[in-house]
Amino acid sequence: MSEFLNRHNMLWEGSRMFLPEHRAALLQRKQDEEAFIPPQLDEDQLVEMNRLLMEAVDGDFPLLVRYVNRRRPCEWCGFVQKINPHERWIRLANGRETTTIPFSDIYGMEKATDRDDV
After folding, report:
1. Cα 77 from Cα 98, distance rounded (Å)
2. Of 26, 51, 65, 86, which is the most buried if we count CB atoms within 10 A?
3. 45 to 34, 63, 106: CA distances (angstroms)
4. Rounded to an integer, what distance in angstroms lies between the CA atom of residue 69 and that of residue 75?
């Protein structure tokens, strides 16, 4: 018997297959398990973040903003360039780079100078 046919195991090994629907479902399940769920903010945390944001605009100091982007936690450090309360986003500038972050994605904020590693 040739090596190709001598499989030394189960009957169905030669006819393995994966349906595209099953593959898509498994990939979706894996992404759901790896998704980052930000903590729910209470009223005091929202007030503190609002105060810090207003101080950053007036005081012109950088902020470290923690937010969710594509189900992953992200951080961005920069100066507040613009706040749009109607469309609910802020724009931060960091040198030549800028980013726009929706309010709904933000789960943390602090002064960048308060960090120990800066």
Report:
1. 10
2. 65
3. 26, 16, 11
4. 10
Quote the number of domains for the chain: 1
Q: Which two tokens stand for residue 78?
A: 């920069």
pLDDT tens-digit map of 19-42 = 888 888 888 888 877 778 888 889
Unique residue bearing structure tokens 């040739």: 2
Which of 18-22's residues contact partners 24+ apart within 8 Å by CB, and which partners? none
Contact yes or no for 93/78 (Cβ under 8 A): yes
Residue 94 sits in which domain range?
43-114
Q: Which amino acid is at 41?
A: L
> Residue 67 and residue 78: Cα distance in Å, rounded?
13
pTM, full prediction: 0.66
